[in-house]
Every structure is written in structure tokens, then in C-alpha cells.
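User: Some background: our group keeps a shared notebook of sequences we're curious about, and every so often someone picks one and asks for a predicted structure to add to the entry. Today it's my turn. The entry only has the sequence so far, pasted here. Could you supply the structure so I can complete it?
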Amino acid sequence: MRHIALHQITMTQDGPAGLVRFAAKAGLKKICLFTATPLTEDGQQMFAIVDPSEKADFQSLLTDHDISIINAEYFPIMRGIDIAQYRPALELAAELGAKRAVTHISETDPARIADQLGSLCEMASDLGMEIGLEFTGFAKGCDSLEKAVRLHQAMKQSNLKIAIDALHLFRTGGTLEQLKAIDPSSIGYAQICDGPHFRKSDDYFEEAMNRMIPGEGMFPLRALIDLLGAHVDWDIEVPHFASVPHFDAEDWALQAIAACKTLLE
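Assistant: Of course. Here's the predicted structure to add to the notebook entry:
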């Protein structure tokens, strides 16, 4: 069975350090976490990040719990932001052993997308990392599988790989038939979750942040898994931020892990 990673937004309690400890307790070997994060409207960090000043302690924590990082987030191509400002967070991710860094494309100018994404890929390559290109309905510069494939082909960067998030695939109009036509080697990782329907939408933020346990919704996850090669890294991304009385975050994450393991066996 392939190793699967637990994404930080599936288990946000106690930040990245808590994620490491919980993943190890749950029998996992890999995680996805934040070394950079967008700011909220009031200037706060959206998610807890690894504190650069505690790098050595965090490295020891990873080693002690036999945990490695497949994805470090989150390095979006956005209007008004120069990719160069991501260098410290990208270097931190590399020093912690992250396999890749994740980007979304909010910028819509094709020339600037090519320039900034090219620079990000080169910066990551110098650090021995891949770049994961994740298409989402939120990021209008790359908001579909079709756009992601075109951009990947145009960039011709050997360390640029496409990400397949089940929710973003099906909620932006993507299909398994489209996926079948893609060169399997262009896909680097996939994120597994479930959802209640396939309706295409320009505003599905609420559902994206409150996903369903794999196997409890309508997404054809078994067929999706069968389409992707053994080289693909799998990431459990099943956040639940809705206000629910007596919600147990650890129990929720354990349910998500068990469901993903069942599907991937």
C-alpha cells in the first residue's frame, strides 16, 4: 500500500508540530504543512506556519517521529506579489525536506504568469524541489484541469507537476475522461476528499473548507484512484471548519484517515 500524507487543514489543532505528533500517532509517515500562508483581510495568517526560528527543533521533531513532508504550502502567483519574496519560506521547506511546494495561479495576465511561475520553478529546482500546480475555482488564472494541462505544457519545466484535488476537479467541471487523456507523468500528487454533488460553481469556498469523509459523498474516488499511477503522492485533505457542537477534531481526522486507507488498499 502507498504511503499517504495528512494535510494540515485536516488537522489544524496545535499547528504544524501538533500535525507531526498526531500523524505519527495515527500510523502515518507523511504530512503536508505550511511554511507560508496568505493573510486574512485583517492581516492575520490564515494557517499556522512552521516558525523559522524553531527550524532545528522542528527538524528534530520530524526525525524523532519518522515523518517526512511531501507538500509545503502555499506559494500563489498573485497580482502585486513578486515570487522572490517567497524565497525564505521556500528555503525553509527545502531544509525541512519537503518534496514540493504548492502554487495556485490567481494572476490572470499570461505573460506575468509565465514569468512568475517560471521563476518559482527555477527557484524550487535549485533547492531540489518540485512545484505542484493546483487548479481551483478560486484562482482564475488556472481554474480548471484543462487550463492546468495547457499551462504545464507551455512552461516546459521538468519539476512542474499537476495536482489533482478531487473536490476542485469535479467542482470545476473536470471529468475522469479528461483525466484519462493526460500524460500520467505530468501528475505529481492528488488530494482525496468527498463532496455532495458535481455542480460547477464560481463560489464553493464553504464546501471546500467543509468537505466530506471519502466514501460518504458522490465523487467517484475509486475510479479516480485507479486512473492515477503508483508514482502519485496521496494527500488526505478533508477540512471541517463548520461550527458543530461537540466537534472532535482528532476523531474527524482519524475517520478521514481510515476512509482513505480503505480506498487506497
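Suggested note for the entry: The domain at 4-264 is CATH 3.20.20.150 (TIM Barrel). The chain is about 35% helix and 15% strand.
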